[in-house]
Q: What sequence folds into this?
């Protein structure tokens, strides 16, 4: 290519992408810029990326569907953090000659945040913190984890890593996923159960399921209705896995004790979204993977992917091979 390659890093909300990766290794072969505000409008996004041969996407913050890919004729390499991105139309990318590559990551970061949310929810930490700052004192009565049952929807890398922490708190652990074998669950330290049984028995339901068209709404109105009024729901996986309307009804009706969410159907969550006003909730802005250590892996691999592409090689290819 004549001249340096234009690289655009999207959705750098915290303005840390350039400091988190070894971008200097690209030298004068590339110019690198970051966009620190989310661009939701397609026309505005296309205008911002005009002339960019390389785009770096942070997880599923920005979608690349067939329309957007079709309006970015200069795009040749799309790097997503992580080794999967449901917001990218891989088939269209491949058909248009756009290579999509991924990065590694550190799965423990989401586990840590999930436990932070569980503890904050069951001990009403945000509400008590707010009252302390307003001059108040004890108001809520917390719930202990010892002797309770954790229900894991999904027992992959992250779900499995939840088990030893639950055991350390004195919890029993049950799990369900579509093809979960009892032996596999036992190996991870959990007991495999039927889906409805999990929602009926669990004191805390934590969702750790891979999102796809088939898994959308896997925690639906029926599952939420099966939960006890003393049970809590936690989702740090993907927003569309849970039926948000059913969850809102359950929260307002007092059908469940509360919910902690780090992920949403639409991100960033709109300021007027009803979840922001829902009772007995702890909400965080998709922080599960947002750590210094994980960003170092993300952007280190991003630079490596770009270097390989510039040299005629491919690292961590995600698009189907032609």
A:
């Amino acid at each position: 290519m004549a001249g340096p390659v234009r690289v655009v890093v999207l959705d750098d909300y915290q303005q840390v992408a350039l400091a988190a990766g070894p971008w200097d290794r690209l030298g004068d072969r590339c110019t690198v810029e970051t966009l620190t505000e989310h661009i939701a409008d397609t026309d505005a996004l296309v205008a911002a990326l005009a002339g960019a041969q390389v785009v770096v996407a942070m997880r599923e913050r920005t979608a690349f569907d067939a329309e957007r890919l079709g309006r970015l004729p200069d795009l040749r390499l799309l790097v997503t953090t992580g080794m999967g991105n449901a917001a990218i139309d891989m088939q269209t990318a491949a058909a248009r000659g756009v290579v999509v590559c991924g990065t590694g990551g550190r799965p423990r970061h989401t586990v840590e945040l999930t436990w932070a949310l569980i503890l904050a929810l069951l001990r009403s930490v945000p509400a008590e913190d707010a009252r302390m700052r307003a001059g108040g004192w004890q108001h809520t009565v917390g719930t202990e984890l010892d002797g309770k049952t954790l229900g894991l929807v999904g027992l992959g890398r992250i779900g499995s890593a939840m088990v030893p922490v639950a055991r350390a708190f004195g919890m029993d652990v049950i799990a369900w996923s579509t093809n979960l074998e009892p032996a596999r669950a036992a190996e991870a330290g959990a007991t495999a159960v039927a889906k409805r049984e999990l929602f009926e028995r669990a004191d805390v339901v934590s969702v750790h399921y891979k999102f796809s068209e088939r898994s959308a709404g896997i925690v639906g109105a029926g599952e939420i209705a099966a939960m006890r009024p003393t049970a809590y729901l936690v989702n740090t996986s993907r927003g569309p896995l849970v039926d948000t309307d059913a969850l809102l009804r359950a929260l307002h009706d007092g059908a469940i004790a509360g919910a902690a969410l780090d992920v949403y159907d639409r991100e960033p969550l709109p300021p007027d979204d009803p979840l922001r006003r829902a009772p007995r909730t702890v909400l965080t802005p998709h922080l599960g993977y947002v750590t210094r250590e994980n960003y170092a892996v993300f952007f280190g691999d991003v630079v490596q992917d770009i270097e390989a592409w510039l040299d005629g090689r491919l690292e961590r290819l995600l698009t189907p091979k032609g």
User: Anything to note?
Assistant: The radius of gyration is 21 Å. Residues 5-106+291-310 form a domain with the Rossmann fold fold (CATH 3.40.50.720). The longest strand covers residues 5-9. The longest helix spans residues 292-310.
